Amino acid sequence: MIKIAPSILSANFANLVSDIKAVEDAGADMLHIDVMDGHFVPNITIGAPVVKSLRKVSGLIFDVHLMIEKPESYIKDFADAGADIISVHAEASRHLHRLLQMIKSEGIKASLALNPATPINVIEHLLDDIDMILIMSVNPGFGGQEFIPAIYEKISLLKEYLLKKNKSIPIQVDGGIGLSNIKKVCDCGAEVIVSGSAIFRSENVKETIRLMKKADEDK
């Protein structure tokens, strides 16, 4: 069964704890926490102190997505704050192997994120160091964007590549995913779905997550 990771980028920050508890009670598998610095992407969100505070009120897996410059300077901060998984962008570092090893040295999982225009071949010599691959299906920075259609093929190509390499690395997809297209995303090979607006702005969060989890039942 696919895993659902609601993105708090679309939550109500004035009621963040209650929104997180709502998705936790509704059966979410992870909490996707977008960290932006206003440089790598044109937006600013939260830092390690907020993650540390949220860790005290949630038992969900914390999937921390660093959309920042010089991520190596902040790995320990977010690990200490309670991250279970840290995603770093291939485009943000010249030394990806070192960066991934830095994450894993903290005893947590390392995920590599790829922007829409970044080819999948950047992972070729990193397969033994990656616990998850995050495919961005929108240009990172803001919630509520539409899914980029070309990403369907990218997901399929990545899935085929991993099968050829005999690697069972989960593919996570983030951006513009809702009930109207989640099945197609899963059919292409996605196993972890990040969704913000479609969950937090739905009339019934629990039912939305339930329907999302059913998206690959007939595969």
From TrEMBL:
One GO cellular component term of this record is: cytoplasm
Extent of the signal sequence: none
UniProt-annotated binding residues for a divalent metal cation: H32, D34, H65, D174
Sites where the protein binds substrate:
S7, H65, G141, F142, G143, G144, D174, G175, G176, G196, S197
Query: Membrane-spanning regions, if any?
Result: none
| Cofactor(s), names only, from the UniProt record | Mn(2+); Zn(2+); a divalent metal cation; Fe(2+)
One Pfam family of this protein, by short name? Ribul_P_3_epim
Reaction(s) this enzyme catalyzes, per UniProt: D-ribulose 5-phosphate = D-xylulose 5-phosphate
In terms of PROSITE patterns, this protein maps to: RIBUL_P_3_EPIMER_1 (PS01085), RIBUL_P_3_EPIMER_2 (PS01086)
**Pathway named in the protein's UniProt entry:** Carbohydrate degradation
**Function as written in the Swiss-Prot or TrEMBL entry:** Catalyzes the reversible epimerization of D-ribulose 5-phosphate to D-xylulose 5-phosphate.
Report the sequence similarity comment from the record.
Answer: Belongs to the ribulose-phosphate 3-epimerase family.
NCBIfam families for the chain = PRK05581.1-4, rpe
Q: Record's HAMAP family?
A: RPE
**Under which name does UniProt file this protein?**
Ribulose-phosphate 3-epimerase
Identify the species of origin: Lutispora thermophila DSM 19022
Recite the lineage of the species.
Bacteria, Bacillati, Bacillota, Clostridia, Lutisporales
